[in-house]
C-alpha cells in the first residue's frame, strides 16, 4: 500500500499512476474529503472535474464514489480546466476536486482540492487530515460507520458555457480592434476552454479575434511538447507561429489551463511580472469605477519591483506575500485585494472567488492591447522597467550555512534584509544602481532558488554572479548557470 505522505504535497496531490495514485487511493481520498471538508462545510454536495489525461476519468469516478458513499451528492462537470473547476465551486457554492497533474508528464496525475467558494485546501487547511484519514482507511485498520443519510447521488452537468459567459462578463472586448492571436494549448485543457471563451464554441457571440490554434487536440500524453510554458523550450513553436502569421500576440497555457504566458508580436516573452502590473492597473481602475475607496493588490516576494510601483502609481496599496497560491489567496481574502499575481503566471481575482484564472488574465491582455493602437512590446514596456535574472537553482546541502553567508554579505554592504520568504536583500540606497535579490529554499528538493533584479543588465549580472559564487562556493560565470522552471 503506498504511503500517501510521499505524494500528498503541501497544496495538492501529485503522484505516479497507478503506483501511487490508484483508483483505490482515489476512492479513499474521496471518502476522507467528504468527512473532513465537505460534510463540515454543510453545503451538501461536491463538484468534481478532470483534465484530458487517460487516467483522469477513472480516478475522478473512484473519488466520486467515495464521496457518494458518505451520503453527499456529487456533480460531475467532466472535462474542464482547473479554473473551470474553481468557477463551479464558486458558482454552486460547494467544495470541489480537480483531477490534474498540470504540466507534469503523462505518467502522473493529481488532485487539487477546494472548499466551497473555491477556498483552498492545503496542509494548514485540511489536506493533512484528509491524507491521514485516507491512509487509515487504506491500511484497513477500521471502517467508518455507514452514512446515516444513505448514499448520495452522482449526476453530470456541463458548465463550460456558464464559465465562459462569466469570464466574458468581467472584461469588455466590444471596443477592441481586431487582433490576430496564436494560442498554444499544449494538448491540454486550453484546447477546450479557448474555443469556448475566445471563440463561439460555447454559443457566445464572436469576439474581434482571429484565433490561430496550436495543439488544441486534447491529449494527455503531450505528443508535441510538455504543457509547461515556464520552460522556454516549450515556447519555441508558439514564438515561430507568432512571427510566421504576423500575429499581434501569442498565448500559451499549461496542461490544466490555469496559467497563461504571453508572447509579443516579435516572438519575445512578456514577463509574468509585467502582465501582473498591466492587469493590476486595469483591475484597480475597475474597482475605483465600482466605488471602492481602498484598493489593494497582492504580489509575492519575487515579482518585479515594478509591480509595487505600478500599484502605487494607480493609487492602490501593494501587499507582499510569500511564494505560493495558499499565501496569495489567504492574504487576498484577508485584505479584500482586488487582484494578485505571481512570477509563475498565476493570476488571482477577487471577482473570481480570489482564485486563479489564466483565461481571465488573457482577456485583460487582449482588451488592453485592442483598445489602443500600439504593439504589445511597446505597451508592456511601461511594466517591464528592470532587468531580471530569472530563477536560478543550485543544489545545496548546507542551506542554513549558505543563507548565513548571504546575510553577512548584505551587512558588509549596508544593504537591507528581510526574511518574509527566504532572504531578500535590497541595495543600500540612491548612491548605487537599484538591485535586489531573493534566495529561498525549495519545499521538496535540496535546492536554493535565486532571483535577481536590477536597474540595468551590468548591475544584475554583477550581483547575480557574486551570489552564485556565495551559493555554489566557486566563481561562476553566466555560462555556468542553469535555470530550471519551478
| Broad CATH class of the largest domain | Alpha Beta
Number of strands: 23
Helix/strand-derived class? Answer: alpha/beta
| CATH H-tier superfamily of the largest domain | Alpha-D-Glucose-1,6-Bisphosphate, subunit A, domain 3
The share of residues in extended strands comes to 15-25%
Biggest beta-sheet profile: 7 strands, mixed
Cα gyration radius (Å): 23 Å
What proportion of the residues is helical, as a percent range?
25-40%
Shape: globular
Number of domains: 3
Mean pLDDT: 94
Count of alpha/pi helices: 14
CATH architecture of the largest domain: 3-Layer(aba) Sandwich
Low-confidence stretches: 475-486
What fold name goes in the CATH topology slot of the largest domain? Alpha-D-Glucose-1,6-Bisphosphate, Chain A, domain 3
CA-CA gap between termini = 30 Å
Summarize the structure.
This protein has 486 residues and is an alpha/beta fold. 35% of the residues lie in helices and 21% in strands.
Describe the structure.
- Residues 392-469 form the Alpha-D-phosphohexomutase C-terminal domain.
- Keywords: Isomerase, Magnesium, Metal-binding, Phosphoprotein.
- One of its GO terms (biological process) is carbohydrate metabolic process.
- The protein has 486 residues and is an alpha/beta fold.
- It folds into three domains: 4-158, Alpha-D-Glucose-1,6-Bisphosphate, subunit A, domain 3 (Alpha-D-Glucose-1,6-Bisphosphate, Chain A, domain 3); 160-385, Alpha-D-Glucose-1,6-Bisphosphate, Chain A, domain 3 (3-Layer(aba) Sandwich); 387-480, 2-Layer Sandwich (TATA-Binding Protein).
- It contains 14 helices and 23 strands.
- Strands 1, 2, 3, 4, 5, 6 and 7 form a seven-stranded mixed beta sheet that branches. Strands 18, 19, 20, 21, 22 and 23 form a six-stranded antiparallel beta sheet that branches. It has a five-stranded mixed beta sheet with strand order 9-8-10-11-12, with helices on both faces.
- The longest helix is centred in the N-terminal third of the chain and has 19 residues, at 23-41.
- The two termini are 30 Å apart.
Amino acid at each position: 500500500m503506498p504511503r500517501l505522505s510521499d505524494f500528498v504535497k503541501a497544496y495538492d496531490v501529485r503522484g505516479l499512476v497507478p503506483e501511487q495514485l490508484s483508483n483505490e487511493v482515489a476512492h479513499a481520498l474521496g471518502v476522507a474529503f467528504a468527512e473532513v471538508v465537505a460534510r463540515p462545510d454543510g453545503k451538501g454536495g461536491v463538484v468534481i472535474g478532470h483534465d484530458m489525461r487517460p487516467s483522469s476519468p477513472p480516478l475522478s469516478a473512484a473519488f466520486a464514489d467515495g464521496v457518494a458513499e458518505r451520503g453527499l451528492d456529487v456533480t460531475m462537470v467532466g472535462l474542464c480546466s482547473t479554473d473551470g473547476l474553481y468557477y463551479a465551486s464558486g458558482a454552486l457554492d460547494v467544495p470541489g476536486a480537480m483531477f490534474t497533474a498540470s504540466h507534469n508528464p503523462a505518467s502522473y496525475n493529481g488532485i487539487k482540492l477546494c472548499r466551497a467558494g473555491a477556498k483552498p485546501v492545503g496542509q494548514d487547511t485540511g489536506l493533512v487530515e484528509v491524507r491521514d484519514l485516507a491512509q487509515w482507511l487504506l491500511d484497513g485498520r477500521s471502517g467508518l460507520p455507514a452514512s446515516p443519510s444513505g448514499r448520495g447521488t452522482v449526476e453530470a452537468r456541463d458548465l463550460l458555457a456558464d464559465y465562459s459567459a462569466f469570464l466574458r462578463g468581467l472584461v469588455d472586448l466590444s471596443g477592441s480592434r481586431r487582433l490576430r492571436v496564436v494560442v498554444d494549448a499544449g494538448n491540454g485543457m486550453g484546447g477546450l476552454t479557448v474555443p469556448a471563451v475566445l471563440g463561439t464554441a460555447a454559443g457566445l457571440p464572436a469576439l474581434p479575434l482571429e484565433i490561430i490554434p496550436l495543439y488544441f487536440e486534447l491529449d494527455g500524453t503531450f505528443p508535441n511538447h510538455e504543457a509547461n510554458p515556464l520552460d522556454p523550450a516549450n515556447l519555441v513553436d508558439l514564438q515561430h507561429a507568432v512571427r510566421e502569421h504576423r500575429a499581434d500576440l501569442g498565448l500559451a497555457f499549461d496542461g490544466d489551463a490555469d496559467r497563461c504566458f504571453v508572447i509579443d508580436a516579435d516572438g519575445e516573452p512578456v514577463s509574468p511580472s509585467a502582465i501582473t502590473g498591466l492587469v493590476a492597473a486595469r483591475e484597480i481602475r475597475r474597482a475605483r469605477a465600482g466605488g471602492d475607496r481602498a484598493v489593494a493588490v497582492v504580489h509575492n516576494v519575487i515579482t518585479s519591483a515594478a509591480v509595487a510601483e505600478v500599484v502605487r502609481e494607480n493609487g492602490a496599496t501593494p501587499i507582499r506575500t510569500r511564494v505560493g497560491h495558499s499565501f496569495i489567496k489567504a492574504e487576498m481574502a484577508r485584505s479584500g485585494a482586488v487582484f494578485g499575481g505571481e512570477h509563475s503566471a498565476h493570476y488571482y481575482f477577487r471577482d473570481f472567488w480570489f482564485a486563479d484564472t489564466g483565461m481571465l488574465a488573457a482577456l485583460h491582455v487582449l482588451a488592453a492591447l485592442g483598445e489602443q493602437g500600439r504593439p504589445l512590446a511597446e505597451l508592456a514596456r511601461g511594466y517591464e522597467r528592470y532587468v531580471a535574472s530569472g530563477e536560478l537553482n543550485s543544489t545545496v546541502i548546507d542551506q542554513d550555512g549558505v543563507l548565513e553567508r548571504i546575510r553577512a554579505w548584505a551587512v558588509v554592504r549596508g544593504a537591507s534584509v528581510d526574511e518574509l520568504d527566504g532572504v531578500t536583500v535590497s541595495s543600500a540606497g540612491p548612491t548605487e544602481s537599484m538591485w535586489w535579490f531573493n534566495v529561498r529554499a525549495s519545499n521538496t528538493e535540496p535546492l536554493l532558488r535565486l532571483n535577481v533584479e536590477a536597474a540595468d543588465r551590468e548591475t544584475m549580472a554583477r550581483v547575480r554572479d557574486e551570489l552564485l559564487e556565495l551559493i555554489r562556493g566557486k566563481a561562476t560565470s553566466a555560462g555556468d548557470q542553469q535555470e530550471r522552471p519551478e
